[in-house]
Amino acid sequence: MDRALQQGDPAIATPRARAPREREGWLALPLALYFCLFFLAPLALLAGISLRTTPQLEGFGLVQYAKFAGDPFNWSVLWQTLLIGVKTVALTACIGIPLGLLFMDAPRRLQPILLFIIVLPLLTSVVVRTFAWMVILGRDGLVNNALTALGVITAPLRLLHTELGLVVSLSQIEMPLMLLPLISVMSRLDPHLKDASAALGAGRWRTLFRVTLPLSLPGLLAGCLLVFASSVTAFVSQTIIGGGRMILMPFYLWQQATTLFNWPFAATIGMVLLVAVLAVVTTLNALGRRSRALVHG
Amino acid sequence: MARQTTAGDLSYRVVLGLLSMVALLILIVPVVVVIITSFTDSRSLRFPPPALSLRWYSALFDPVQSAQIHTAAWNSLVIAVSATAISVALGTAAALAISGRRTWWTQALDALFMSPLILPTLAFGLAALMFFSTLRLPLSIPLMILGHVAVIVPFILRTTIASLSQLDRGLLDTSSSLGASAIYTFRRVTLPAIRPGILAGAFIAFMASVDNVSVSLFLAGPENDVLPIRMWNMLESQLDVRTAAVSGVLIFTTAILVVVMDRIVGLTRRIS
Questions:
Q1: A270 contacts A50 by C-beta, under 8 angstroms
Q2: Which of A152, A250, B122, B181 has the lowest tally of Cβ within 10 angstroms?
């Protein structure tokens, strides 16, 4: 070493102490490469194909989008699909929030059991859960047979292949996605807040709507986001519980791509669905940021 | 005033109690209904079943009659194991890079890697089909594995980043100041601390791959049929009660796996 060492010289700083952190940045590269090749490139191709003019993939232009926007049928399919998502979110929130509150109030011994009940459907196959609702809602199913036995109805109700049936079954299928973020935020709330609210004379309802729910808003919004995103693309439940008469975006896309081989139009449906979901997600995220600012700011 | 509060408390308890009972029923009943239906003696989905038998299970386990289902189940298993292995390797490495940094590029990467959870993956499934066809690659199991990695890797990233954020950075500094190399520190300090997080994520990713419809729907063909798509066909075309038996097997397997994984890595705690 022929020169004097100075403060901050790399030779002084122990190289080993820095090595782990400096090397870590590169570790994201393989996954980033994979995403570029097998996620972003296909999506870019999807966007490209949606700009093709004919099913033989000739020409370039916005023909497919004009075709989509020009037919009121397409608008109603899109609207129906988004509406199913909104209704599912509403129902899931209505029964998910009380269950979340019950979970927080439950004795510590019971909490793991409740969590198991919440997690199990999440990890059970979507097709299995859909199948369960076929048995429950069918002509000869649980609900119809129970109502007939009770003398409430004489002829079986049509529950399968209805919008109500679809929304109820989706709310079960997606419930864990609502509950898990909700519970994780609720369990971080200071339990003294509720006591303080009660001590100041607020009833339980007032405490719920003025203290607990506003503070749980980030978790609630995260849950709504996941439930919405997942129920608008729930192909299996939509086709089996919703049935053939109810055409929603996922089935529409699948039909155009695999039975009619109209790739440009299928790609257009995919892009419209993608943009619609992104718009809803971005709006909810913006609301989420505002709610967090409200809570912490 | 005092009486009003009690009435309010009472209505609070009744309304929330009833709603959470509805929620619990909605979560539990379908699982129970599937298990009971799988033991039905009937050719229809009548509930409650007129008589109980094991006929659909014996039909399901018959190697000749249910050969298609067995192949689909085997393919699903092969795809899920491989896709999970790749995702663990790529996901853990990326988690090490992303966690603890708040720069623009880590945030952008994080948003990109997590986007498959939110985006309609059905559009990605279609995109993957178009992509592989444009490259003139015939649909096969390896392509299916590549397609699955994107949709399951977020689960591993999420749990691994969560356990990394709880890791004491001081431990790493101590290890390296004591002369341990980066690789040695990773193997002996970081990995043992984050292993439960990786395992929990890997388990959820594995289940998500077995369960995947949105990508498999487009990438599955006669050569690489998978279980959820086969089951969807069994329900769509004409009702096949063997679906009930498949569902029964899947529910029991999942329940056992969840309990085991909960013991090993505290699964349910990590998901929430």
A1: yes
A2: A152
Instruction: Locate B133 and state its tokens.
Output: 């066809």
Task: Tell me which residue in B22, B113, B122 faces A233 most closely, judged by beta carbons.
Answer: B122
Per-residue confidence at B272, pLDDT binned at 50, 70, 90? low
Picking from B212, B197, B205, B187, the residue whose alpha carbon sits closest to that of residue B267 is: B197
CB contact under 8 A, B180 and A16: yes
Spatial CA neighbour of A124 closest among B72, B265, B227: B227
Residue of B nearest to A14 (CA): B177
**Is A140 touching B (CB cutoff 8 A)?**
yes
What structural domains does chain B harbor? 64-271 (1.10.3720.10)
* Gap between the Cα atoms of A77 and B9, Å rounded: 44
Least confident of B2-11, B52-61, B141-150, B257-266: B2-11
Q: Is A183 on the interface with B (CB under 8 A)?
A: yes
How many beta-carbon pairs below 8 A join chains A and B? 294
Minimum mean pLDDT range among A66-70, A245-249, B173-177, B190-194 = B173-177
Output b/e per residue, A80-93; b: 16+ Cβ within 10 A: bbbebbebbbebbb
DSSP 8-state class, residue B205: H
Q: What is the pLDDT of residues B201-238, one digit of tens each?
A: 999 999 999 999 999 999 998 888 999 999 998 888 77
pLDDT at B239 over 80: no
Q: Which of B9, B38, B117, B118 is the best mutation test for A, with the most CBs of A within 10 A?
A: B118
Helical axes A111-123 vs A163-186, angle rounded to 10°: 130
Could you say which of A41, A98, A204 has the minimum Cβ distance to residue B8?
Answer: A204
Axis-axis angle for helices B121-134, B141-165 (nearest 10): 140
- How far B130 CA lies from chain A's nearest CA (Å)? 7
Write down the pLDDT at residue B3.
46
- ipTM above 0.95 for this complex: no
Residues 28-57 of A with CB under 8 A from B: 28-32, 34-35, 38-43, 45-46, 49
